[in-house]
Fold this protein.
Amino acid sequence: MSDPSRETLAAYSLFRGLGDEYLREVARIIRTEEVDAGTVIAAENESGNDLFLLADGVVDISKALTIVTSRTEFGTRERSFVRLTGADHCFFGEMALLGNGERSATVRAVTRCRLLVIRAADFHALCGSHPRVGYIVMTNIAVMLSEHLRRANTDILKLTTALSLALSG
């Protein structure tokens, strides 16, 4: 499959602020991958070095939860937290670009998906020759991660308050 177009890449918030020249450079390091429904694209706690742009299809993002199965035993169950669609121009696996290759969640294809894949090594090589690309992309990742952290902090506060009320009442 051919390189993704400038218009395709410009639709992703990850590349907000990159000009045409830099988008063409990014397109050169992208490979396209098709996966069938049910395929695990990234598995929680496993090593990974790829960032994925969801071009077409639907994926679920889930985490393993520890649950009480009896008075003395615990088990784990996977719980889906987010569903992403290609129409939303989503990306995942961005922490692979930050040096931590351990996946924080499991991503499973719900439908057949077309992914645009960037290997961390290729991205870092691109940044070596075009530092502005690295600066802009990493800034965009930092903005997204800070939004996620802010949301997580709010959720933790709500859960802590609910637990405190439940235990005191």
The longest helix spans residues 131-168. The longest strand covers residues 74-85. The CA atoms of residues 22 and 130 lie 8 Å apart. DSSP finds four helices and eight strands in the chain.
